[in-house]
UniProtKB/TrEMBL annotation:
Biased composition, class Basic residues, residue ranges: 88-97
Enzyme Commission code: 2.3.2.25
Name this polypeptide is given: Ubiquitin-conjugating enzyme E2 W
Molecular function via GO: ubiquitin conjugating enzyme activity
Highest taxon of source: Eukaryota
Length: 253
């Protein structure tokens, strides 16, 4: 027996002994082919193992090379990404009866309350995430509920927003209501908020909603719960006063 035939015989015997792992073996001339079924659950492909010369009539249509596997995997990923994702609908806060009455009341554009009514309508129609507004008998006093972000996750705060007679030339009065106040370098224990938009940076084109969003952003960017350095000197002050004479140093009061 020549060396090449001996080699083929050894391979044939090895393949036969591994019968549980292979579907079938066959030889043709000097070619030897072993066909096996891959157990890989992800690709579920059929591998063709060849020994010796290339077999004629091999079922090459069953063979899947690495490029094909990579292509299939890529197509599966693209198909998965193309699937429409379920949109989580944010529950819109209920509008109180009194708020509806304020919105339904006809107000002339020359009336100082006209702008406040318009702002309230926009706030209720499309409330920013994490914020909701309620109003009582007085249209010029709002209570904004704030869902704490960041380190305040799970906490809820209340902002009192009132509009002075000079509004919008001057900013609204805004402060947190007790008993639950946020602890942070911009928030005083009397409820005041160190925010330049409530003082020198206020512009009449701004709104009460934009102020509430800025406060929400301040909460989200607060790194840790520490009191302002000058809290002891400020805590006794009446909250919500016009911050006209406040001094701001790098956004720290």
């Amino acid at each position: 027996m020549n060396p090449s035939n001996a080699f083929l015989l050894i391979v044939w015997l090895s393949a036969s002994s591994a019968a549980p792992f292979f579907s079938r073996t066959r030889s043709r001339g000097r070619a030897f082919v072993v066909e096996s079924v891959s157990t890989h659950s992800l690709q579920n492909t059929v591998s063709i193992l060849r020994g010796g010369a290339e077999a004629e009539g091999t079922e090459s249509s069953l063979a899947i090379d690495d490029d094909d596997i990579e292509k299939i995997t890529k197509e599966e990923k693209e198909e998965a990404l193309a699937q429409p994702k379920e949109t989580i609908k944010r529950k819109k806060p209920k509008t109180s009866k009194q708020a509806k009455e304020h919105l339904a009341r006809p107000i002339q554009s020359t009336n100082p309350n006209y702008r406040i009514q318009r702002e309230l309508k926009e706030f209720i129609k499309d409330p920013p995430p994490g914020l909701s507004v309620q109003v009582g008998k007085n249209l010029r006093v709002w209570i904004v509920t704030v869902e704490g972000p960041g380190i305040y996750q799970g906490e809820t705060f209340r902002l009192r927003i009132s509009f002075p007679p000079q509004y919008p030339v001057v900013p609204p009065s805004v402060y947190f209501l007790p008993p639950h106040l946020p602890v942070g370098p911009h928030f005083y224990t009397n409820g005041d908020i160190c925010l330049s938009l409530l003082g020198k940076d206020w512009r009449p084109t701004m709104t009460a909603q934009s102020i509430a969003i800025s406060i929400l952003s301040m909460l989200a960017s607060t790194p840790k719960k520490v009191m302002p350095m000058d809290n002891a000197a400020h805590a006794h002050n009446k909250p919500g006063q016009y911050q006209k004479d406040w001094v701001y140093h790098d956004d720290n009061c």
